[in-house]
Amino acid sequence: MTKLPDGRFVDDAPYDPQASIQMLERQDLDAPNWVLIWRKFKQHKLGLVSAIFLLFSYLMLPFAGFIAPYTPNDRQSEHLYAPPQGIKLWHEGEFIGPFVYPTTAEADLITFQWKFVPDETRPLPLKFFCEGGEYKLAGLIPSNRHLFCAPEGATLFLWGSDRLGRDVFSRILYGAQLSLTVGLIGISVSFFLGIGFGSIAGYFGGKIDWVINRLIEILRSLPELPLWLALSAAVPSNWGPVSVFFIISIILGILDWPGLARSVRAKFLSLREEEYVRAAEMMGASSGRVIRKHLLPNFMSHLIASATLSIPAMILGETALSFLGLGLRAPAVSWGVMLNDAQNLANIEIYPWTAIPMLPIVVVVLAFNFMGDGLRDSLDPYTA
Amino acid sequence: MSILRYAIYRFGTMLLTLLVVSAMVFIIINLPPGDYLSNQIAELQATGQSAGVAKAEFLRKEYALDRPLWEQYMIWVGFMPGPHGFSGLIQGNFGWSFEFDRPVRDIVGDSLWLTVLVNIAAIVFVYAVSLPLGVIAAARSRTWVDYTSAFVGYLGLATPNFLLALILYYYGRKYLNIPIGGLMDPVFEGQPLTWDKFKSVMVHLIVPTIVIGTAGASAMMQRLRANMLDELGKPYVETAVAKGMAPSRMLAKYPLRVAFNPFVADIGNLLPSMVSGSVLVSVVMGLQTIGPTLLTALKTQDQFLSGFILMFVALLTLIGTMISDVLLVLLDPRIRYEGREA
Fold it and tell me: Does B85 contact A at CB distance below 8 Å?
């Protein structure tokens, strides 16, 4: 405390009138990148909802067997092409919790179809945490507990049953396991190749750059689907479903990398001239280290955003291949395989619920698109 | 460098690309173990039909399938004399289809032109839809027009082609009496072109065009909208408005011209996916394009047939891309002739 000549007391500590304002901004500038990205991403409501939905869907995958009332190849031969059943709560004005009416199949001799007549006098309450068909939790732990299943003597087809009397709802849950992971595996392959080729081309330049660039241009100018078809026709038909699945996702990835490589290369070309790169090189860092430690982290987030935008193409690709019968094949369950049933118009007209698997496809693809858009918009936290 | 020289240069690179593509295609169609003829020979021997075996062996010799792979490739393309001198793709001999037991040329025949027709129709659709919608969405941004078109666009991107085909057929038949499947009335098949046939083809083209074009149109529309929005914020637009120009004239005269560039350039990126789409959609919708033939050829390992179709599809996209590149240079002299950075 100092006493000034005019008699006032003043604190010795240095005082900056701007400090309180700057502190706020400082905090913003010092915050790690992901905090800023997250803060901005939160404002993109559609993107946020989509991200939460996708997170939820992927977290569900290991527990598909638990949530599904049936196992994917469980046949109810008495109930072929059964229409969706509603779960009801009220029976004759009285609340008795979730239940279904048992249905019996009757042959309609005019249209030659099975008609399913509910017996509305006998409400059968659903069972929860009940024992049902065997499945493996997360593919490892064998179990036969289900979240809910059909009561004795009745069926539970939330979204109807298909040609062989299998539950469409359960199959969609199981199908998600393959259909959703195809994109992830494909995108890892594409990421690996794209970053590899793109960084080599951009960092070293010269002849390598020229060759890789031509390769990228050629691959980008070719129609993907016929090549996918040709490559998947080369998969031997005696392979098991799991290896076919892996090969298909790798095929999807192999043809996707050029776009990624192109943007990686463009970034490298501009970043290669930065001074910190030269500094790292002078200190004797190997090219690999410069690429991995100094260059890639600069735009990893951009790459992730663009990868999110190309996952839907792969999901659609898998669906198309399986739909044409060149992708995953029958004992495997994926959304494309299920849609094989909905291939002709007669089926859609008479049994519209066989086309239900298209709903999750459309929703997931939309969600990926919205999330990708949101991510892309929020990646530059420093610009307003 | 003049525009003509640029076009020639671009044509040259296209030929080189085609060469690389032919090698790739050849490798891909030879990936599956075995080939059609050796499968057939094995089958015939198992059932003890020696006459068929002799024929298959003869075909093997005839089409040089008994030689090493690289020689097969050279003969197929036409760089090396085969058993009958030079006769490969370059010389106009497309090979023999073992499955149908006819020359490839006879099998693909008309369907080549129909493939081109379907794709051109789809491109016209993409431009016809995305140009007005993109401009309106930008001019009336953040109104219901904008939101509706964005919503429809996103749905178009997210719905698999073949599902859209089924849905459109179903409702088109129910309410508008649009014919299902095929590219023309079966009566006209193999007939010379008449006015009735032309009409029939046009009516049958409606659904396939929409199905193939929707995804491309929505992508293009979003691109155009973003570009227009960028331009609309610029001072020259304000000047034009201030001096009292009618909004529609102002839009067409200034910002649209600037925003138009990527619109042409994008067709190069769009074309491959549209051609893929048309192959898939043709299979589902039973169009007489080369799509269904490709699928059967791939499944039966009919290598000359599938090889030729893959080459044709690649050629189609390469030509489209080349045309768009040349157009782009004509449209915007600022673009350097050496190539464009997209």
Answer: no
Q: Domain residue spans in chain A? A: 85-156, 172-378
| Number of domains making up chain B | 1
In a domain, B184, yes or no: yes
CATH code of residue B170:
1.10.3720
Collapsed DSSP state (helix, strand, coil) of residue B315: helix
User: Between A231, A312, A323, which is nearest B162 by CB?
Assistant: A323
Of B180, B273, B299, the CB nearest to A345: B180
Residues of A in Cβ contact (< 8 Å) with B161: 320
Query: Tokens 């040089």 sit at which residue?
Result: B64
Task: Mark yes or no for CB contact B277/A345 under 8 Å.
Answer: no
Chain A, nearest residue to B25 by Cα? A227
H-run or E-run covering A104: strand A103-108
Strands (E) in B52-161, as ranges, are 96-97, 102-103
Using CA atoms, how far residue A194 sits from A97, A245, B179, in Å, is 54, 22, 45
Query: What is the C-alpha separation between B26 and B22, in angstroms, rounded?
Result: 6
Residue B329's CB is within 10 A of a number of other CB atoms, namely 19
- B164 in any annotated domain: yes
Report ipTM for this prediction: 0.75
In angstroms, rounded to a whole number, what is the distance separating the alpha carbons of residues B72 and A261? 33
Total count of residues recorded for chain A: 384
Residue A288 to chain B, least CA–CA distance (Å): 27
Cα separation values, B313 from A212, B21, B324, Å = 23, 11, 17
Please report whether residue B213 resides in a domain: yes
Q: What is the pLDDT of residues B216-258, one digit of tens each?
A: 888 888 888 888 888 888 888 888 889 988 888 888 888 887 7
Angle at A112 between CA A110 and CA A114, to 5 degrees: 115
For A172-378, CATH gives 1.10.3720.10
State the residue for tokens 């002709």.
A344
Which of B24, B155, B295 is opposite residue A324, by nearest beta carbon? B295
Q: What is the pLDDT of residues B31-66, one digit of tens each?
A: 777 677 777 777 777 777 777 777 777 777 777 777
